[in-house]
């Protein structure tokens, strides 16, 4: 596997296993898992990250998979905030519900942490209708 998607570890969660050994999971790892799950939801145009997220993508030349994701990890649970831009014409409650389900399932399956909240914040709407029409024509 290539290292281009590996990001620096900042904060870690310590999970104690049965034999007194431990597993460390970074907050960034949880954010990347959530980001990948969000990117697979139809109707999501993109992630709404801050200025720093955009600069990171430009300088590194790679996609920031945790852009627009804020994670608070406790000992055995996590809260996740997702900031998205939706495609014009999509039903926002349906998109948000699908994001919540996919993020919860992905994070719980991969990390073993209990996801207690997935808050979806719609930050904008992509109104570039010409690109959407071209995408629809390609799919037909």
How would you describe this structure to a colleague?
α1 (27-39) packs across α3 (92-111). This protein has four helices and six strands. By secondary structure, the chain is an alpha+beta fold.
Task: Tell me the layout of helices and strands.
Blueprint: E1 12-16, E2 22-26, H1 27-39, E3 44-47, H2 51-60, E4 69-73, E5 77-87, H3 92-111, E6 114-126, H4 129-139
Helix pairs in contact: 1-3
Which features does this protein show?
140 residues; alpha+beta; four-stranded mixed sheet; 6 strands; disordered N terminus
Coarse shape: elongated
Number of DSSP E strands? 6
Helix-strand topology string:
EEHEHEEHEH
Number of helices: 4
Question: Span between N and C termini?
Answer: 34 Å
Gyration radius, rounded: 16 Å
Structural class designation: alpha+beta
- Please estimate the helix content: 25-40%
Sheet with most strands = 4 strands, mixed
What ranges have pLDDT less than 50 throughout 5 or more consecutive residues? 1-9, 52-56
Global mean pLDDT? 80
Q: What proportion strand?
A: 25-35%
